[in-house]
Amino acid sequence: MKKVFMNICSFLVTIAIISMAAVTALNFREIYYIDVYRLDIPEMSGYTEQEIIENYNYLIDYNTSFDDKEFKLPSMKFSREGKIHFEEVRNIFHSLYYIMGIGLLAFIAIIYEAFKGRTKPLKNVLKMLIILPVIVAIPMMVAFDKVFVLFHKIMFRNDYWIFDPVLDPVINILPEEFFYHEALLIVSLTVIMWIALLIAYRIFSDRVEKQS
Questions:
Q1: Domains of the chain: which residue ranges?
Q2: What is the pLDDT averaged over residues 51-80?
């Protein structure tokens, strides 16, 4: 029974780490600020740099806030379907925060086991954490547009994510290349956290060997 519980903990920690990488990438606004210039979003969208940054910052604040506030872009019109979509995106990010909280408790259980000399749960996290990003990263590098569409079909039960630029011009300031850069950042952060866990695993393993 305990083995099953620890396997569940390993899985929860893995998902929580990926969730943490996604939330961190979302809050790292500088990557978008760079893309505003690199992708020439003002020219692409027809909006000024100030308008673009203002509306983008609003989207991030809206998605990360737990306040029960109505969606309303500062200076862009939006459709009913667009509003619903961003509400759904917000709910997804709220779910990631909950997953991170549960994952933290699972991580404490795994570290407790490691202190007692049982490092297998931590090793299982390392295995899953390297496999899952690779499964996603390879198709993403080959055909990001197809992965992007598949992701939305899995995450959303409607097609409101397919924006009409006339009704929801915000899509013009969110080019696909930007989401590609976000995805790369998520994978990179996941790898960094994997390396940190690997170091922790080796420390605990060395400790077990010295005690045996």
A1: 2-207
A2: 93
